Amino acid sequence: MRSRTVAPLVLLSIAIVAATAMASGSDRSAPQRGVGTPTLAEPADWEPTAGELVRLHVAEESLISTCMASHGLRYVVEVGGGERLAGFRFPHVIDDPGWARRYGYAADSARTVSLARGTSQNSLHLASLTEHDQQVWRRTLFGERPEDLMVVLPSGIRLGASRTGCLAAAHEYLYGDFAAWFRTQAIAMNLPREYRKAVPADPRYQATRQLWAQCMRRAGYPVATPHDARAALPSLPDIAAETRLAEAEATCAQSTGFGELTRRLDTQYSAPSHRPYQQVVRRYRQMLQAAITRSATRAAI
């Protein structure tokens, strides 16, 4: 299969994680790389907390907004996206009722829908501009040349990113070395695409999913799979209803052991995919940890 080139047009990093770009040396508005870049040893089972991801997202948005303002352009810090980033902790089913009560389906509902429909504050602002000004806004945010950096993903897709722009500047500050981060996170975040397809087909998954579905029906939600629960979101009247559904999903996943099983299966099926890329995954987690540490100092910049 021929590979294809993808130019990143996504604002959010981490969880997705979107392609990033390195600031040009001539851009005086770009945040300067921090002195004393933290180097952190990464435990094999480390993963960021929801709060850490929210903080990292807010730091990124703040850096982008400051950079855009230096060019005379508006960019609104949209804090809500942090909860969506935290959602990657539950790739198959939410099984933490406390997390569900706090974040609900933020991973799949309000802000995701607003971005897709072009109703986020920045999307609405962009739509209000002339065609010329839209091009200027996009170039300032995403940079000039999406082919500056290229990486071939395990799936064969070629992903490109520009070295310039405010998104680039923010990520260069947070991750310390954009070229390394871009290639590392692109590969690390592409690995689950294939092995996670195998998890729902496992007989153990199917058997435990039925127990989960029975629990959900008793709770008043006749859904057969977690995907069905997410598909029901547009029909729910408000965030409170979404949160109740998310909490039911998590409570049933916990009580039936469905959540624990999906994590075990995820680990089992990920091993062959991760084996050739162990150093890449390790480096990805180290850089993510360092960025989370650095984001804590953003308020003092």
Q: What does this 3D model show about the protein?
A:
By secondary structure, the chain is mainly alpha-helical. It has one domain (5-191, 277-300). Helices cover 54% and strands 3% of the residues. It is built from 14 helices and three strands. It has helices at residues 50-70, 81-86, 97-103, 110-116, 121-127, 131-142, 166-175, 178-190, 192-195, 203-218, 226-231, 239-256, 258-274, 278-295; strands spanning 5-6, 149-152, 158-161. The chain has a three-stranded mixed sheet, covered by helices on one side. Helix 1 (50-70) packs across helix 7 (166-175) and helix 10 crosses helix 12 (239-256). The longest helix has 21 residues, at 50-70. The chain is globular and about 55 Å long. It starts with a strand and ends in a 6-residue tail after the last helix. Mean pLDDT is 78; it is low at 1-43 and 107-118.
Measured between the Cα atoms of the first and last residue, the distance is 47 Å
The counted number of beta strands is 3
Parts with pLDDT < 50 across at least 5 consecutive residues: 1-43, 107-118
Report the average pLDDT across residues: 78
Round the Cα radius of gyration to an integer and report it: 20 Å
Structural shape: globular
How many structural domains? 1
Largest sheet: 3 strands, mixed
Q: What is the helical fraction, as a range of percent?
A: 40-55%
The SS-based structural class is mainly alpha
Strand order, largest beta sheet: 1-3-2
How many H/I helical runs? 14
SSE series: EHHHHHHEEHHHHHHHH
Assess the beta-strand content as a share of residues: under 5%
